[in-house]
Amino acid sequence: MVIKKIAIIHTSPATVQSLTSLIKEVIGEIKVVNLLDDSILNDLINNNQIEFVEQRWLQYANIAASMGVDAILSACSSVGNYAEKANAILDIPVYRIDVAMAEKAVSMGQSISVIATLPSTLEPTVKLVESKAKELNKECIIHTVLVKDAYDELMMGNREVHDQKIQKAVQKYYHISDVLVLAQASMATAVEQLEGIDKKKVLTSPKLGVEKLKKDLLQL
To answer: Which strand ranges, in their side-by-side order, compose the sheet holding 94-96?
Structure first.
């Protein structure tokens, strides 16, 4: 059996270890190459040289492809459109980690809360959910929720505070939502210990994205 090899492009160190472990847990024996540029999110947040940010990300995708990987996974929801461009020009598939989550969210109901800790992630995730709803000819009400300062806490090593802020947002929008979407992979563990909710209503991108990747890889 030939062992598959994938590359993950990260924009935050917060996703490197967690995603690598999840991929090996879900897919099994697989080679993982991690590429990290943690300046990308800062540039996106500050609207700094956006064209160069895109060029940089696409160059990472080209580098990954030249390393002989079978597929590329974009770990960051803020750069989903870059992943789609790379998928259109490269000879290997390039995946947005959040596509499977958006598809499932639309299938689960009409009232969808999209929760993010960065403005740069909130807008593209909402657009992705809207596009999936349009594909299914389904009208959805989307609540956009920005959890301020949570990402800064995470970058300072205060994951507990980061998680608490996200939990409060989930609790606030839980009863008016058919489904809640945590827009960033770095948010995935925030509600694991939250009690009093049906966690099936809260979707995160990593596991759903990796399960889709596994299904497709088996067909390559």
So the answer is: 31-36, 5-10, 71-74, 94-96
The alpha carbon torsion through 162, 165, 167, 170 (nearest 10 deg) reads: -130
DSSP-assigned letters across all residues of 36-75: E-TTHHHHHHTT-SHHHHHHHHHHHHHHHHHTT-SEEEE-
Domain enclosing residue 50, as ranges: 5-97+207-217
Which pLDDT tens digit goes with each residue over 59-84?
999 999 999 999 999 999 999 999 99
Question: Per the structure, how many domains does the chain have?
Answer: 2
Residues 166 and 104 in one domain: yes
How far apart, in whole angstroms, are the C-alpha atoms of residue 185 and residue 144? 17
pTM score over 0.70: yes
